[in-house]
Amino acid sequence: TVFSKEQEERLNKFKHKYEFGCSHITLEILKLRSRFEMKWKDSLKQVTSDFEAATENKEIESRIANNWIECLAAFHAISDMLDTVYNYKELLEIFVKGAEDQNSKLSQSNELSDFWNFVSFLMQDGKLYEGADFKIQNVDHIRLPNKKIVQFPEMRRVLFLRFNRVQMLFAREARGEGKVLGISLKHYLENSQVFLGKCYKKMDVIGPHGPITDCKKELGEQTQIRKAVSVETCHCFDYDRLREMYDISLSAIMMNVYGSNDTDIEE
After folding, report:
1. What one-character DSSP code corresponds to residue 104?
2. Does the pTM exceed 0.90?
3. How far apart are CA 116 and CA 25, in angstroms?
4. Vertex 171 angle, CA 121 and 176, to 5°
5. Beta strands in the chain, from DSSP E residues, in sequence order
6. What is the CA angle 73-74-75, rounded to 5?
């Protein structure tokens, strides 16, 4: 993170004040214990009412809202006895915004986890085709549609995902379960930690029974198998970080059935 000169100066001032500690504030608050106990129930009721009114048209999980309400109620119970730069109304706005942000991040995390688990299921169920719907390649850069090159410090495995087709498959499953679709899902993915950008990629064309191929007889006895391909816009993701965060695997391993064993396998 890059900070401006003004922000750095403010941070240094705060650090200087922090060196003196906050024990004096704690001691002042402890003196108000009896008043806190007397006012707590009324304050909790008042803050809950104010918080619900401020979030009337917003969906916030109750456990998240309650955490913020209880903290604010603690302040409300003794606020008239404290000398602070914030008043209750200002803190209410701050706490509501904090609850909204936390709820949004939790919702995003849940939706992304659902999406990637579903992608893994589609691949295992034979409904996603490697080479057509996605590719995993070891590369040191990707070229964005605007010709800009994103260079990596070292080789990394990148997942190239044909998002438009995968999104339609996900939408069919999610539509009946009230999950996020369309623009919201795309926004979450493109702002996730594992997203690297978009690029053009040659992908196999999908027919009713999978990738479209044909056979061409060459001179002699050799037969050449040809695939129909098209250039698609793919979403690019850091595959190893994706596996680590969501515990999924999209790479298949071909094994000899005879004489094989089930020892641990490293990709």
Report:
1. H
2. no
3. 47
4. 95
5. 134-143, 149-161, 195-204, 206-207, 210-211, 213-217, 223-227, 229-238
6. 90
Q: Which residues of 108-136 are buried (b: 16+ CB within 10 A; e: fewer)?
A: beebbebbbebbbebbeeeebbeebbbbb
Give, for 242, the enclosing helix (H) or strand (E).
helix 239-246
**Rounded to an integer, what distance in angstroms lies between the CA atom of residue 190 and that of residue 144?**
14
CB under 8 Å, gap of 24 or more: what pairs does 240-245 form? 240/156, 240/157, 241/193, 241/194, 242/116, 242/159, 242/194, 245/193, 245/194
Q: How does strand 229-238 pair with strand 223-227? A: unpaired
pLDDT per residue rounded down to tens, the chain (267 residues): 567 889 889 988 888 877 777 777 788 888 989 999 999 999 999 999 999 999 988 878 888 899 999 999 999 999 988 888 889 999 999 999 999 988 887 767 778 888 888 888 888 888 888 888 899 999 999 998 888 898 999 999 999 999 988 888 887 766 655 554 555 778 888 888 899 999 999 888 877 766 666 656 555 566 666 677 888 899 999 999 998 888 888 875 444 444 444 433 333
Query: 3-class secondary structure for 77-101?
Result: HHHHHCCCCCCHHHHHHHHHHHHHH
Tokens of 225: 């198998």
